[in-house]
Amino acid sequence: MLVTLSLDEAAETLAAQPFSTLVGARLTAFTDGAATLTIPIRQELLQQHGFVHGGVLSYAADNALTFAAGSVLGPSIVTSGFSITYLRPAMGTALRAEATAVSSGRRQALCRCEIYADTENGPVLCAAAQGTASVIDLGRTGASA
Known about the structure:
alpha+beta
């Protein structure tokens, strides 16, 4: 079941996440089975060696995976698990997390993500992740608005 949300509608969902706003994340692509999240690299996102903090790469993977899953499952989903492998330090002007849905059913989707650092010499693959997202019933979570 492919969900027909526009890039603008999906970007509104991202903008409603306070943490996403804090890191400056933008949804730059959202199509059936795929999503790309971009984060400008700035001083506040670095660790002590001058590389983008691994937590920022992890956030980028988590959200890109979930948006790719949302493109096939719908908007009422959460990440149910993911793993990430850091391949090289992230430095440059922006992070770009490109995720695709690999397999999906009615309630869960498996997605993969590659995270690139955009540099003056071109993109550098910094990390790779795989994860799942599951449909949730917001009325049954016990969460209050």
